[in-house]
Design a protein that fits this description.
This protein is α/β, with parallel strands linked by helices and about 170 residues long. Helix content is about 20%, strand content about 25%. The protein has a domain of about 120 residues: 2-Layer Sandwich (Beta Polymerase, domain 2). Helix 1 crosses helix 2.
Length: about 170
């Protein structure tokens, strides 16, 4: 029997107070504050009413040129109730975003947080081994020496000077 959003809200209410809920195409997303993330995730995992025992994914969204540029997205699943939900956390930091690490609650978060750090530059405070996942450690802009993150909206689309050459444009198009 799937959980209802009301049951999940009852579990989150003592921790988060008011929670924004977004329902879209059969998926329910709960918007929570960054400061409530660890306690909310721990309660959703350990409370027998919710029992979200699997962390399916952690990723991020870059809303370039918006006040809160980044959101981290946590996808949780309960085997007991076959319920899947998303938690989203808005990050106030525009260029140097930080979010608490949930590796102490879900061990699988280690790899997901490293991937999100490598692609978006989101720093997961308290992560036991936060380092690049796909890109080399010295993947930086040769002009500014600032780290580059490929999934950020301000990543250079036509390649990085001094790296692999980009294919030439076909004049037919």
């Amino acid at each position: 029997m799937a959980l209802t959003k009301e049951t999940i809200l009852q579990v989150l209410a003592p921790i988060c107070g008011t929670v924004d809920v977004i329902e879209h195409r059969g998926e329910t997303t709960f918007m929570i504050d960054k400061g409530d993330l660890l306690e909310a995730v721990r309660e959703l995992q350990q409370n027998p009413r919710t029992a979200f025992d699997l962390l399916i994914d952690i990723t991020a969204v870059d809303y370039f040129r918006r006040k809160n540029r980044f959101e981290t997205v946590y996808v949780l699943f309960s085997l007991a109730t076959t319920t899947r939900i998303c938690l989203k956390v808005c990050l106030d930091e525009y260029d140097d975003p930080h979010c608490p690490s949930v590796t102490g609650i879900y061990e699988a978060a280690n790899w997901y947080e490293r991937e999100t750090f490598d692609m978006y530059g989101i720093i997961f405070d308290g992560h036991p081994d936060l380092r690049r996942f796909y890109m080399p450690e010295d993947f930086v802009d040769p002009e500014t020496a600032e780290p580059l993150y490929p999934l950020r909206k301000d990543f250079p689309l036509m390649g990085i000077p001094g790296s692999l050459p980009m294919p030439e444009k076909n004049p037919q198009y």
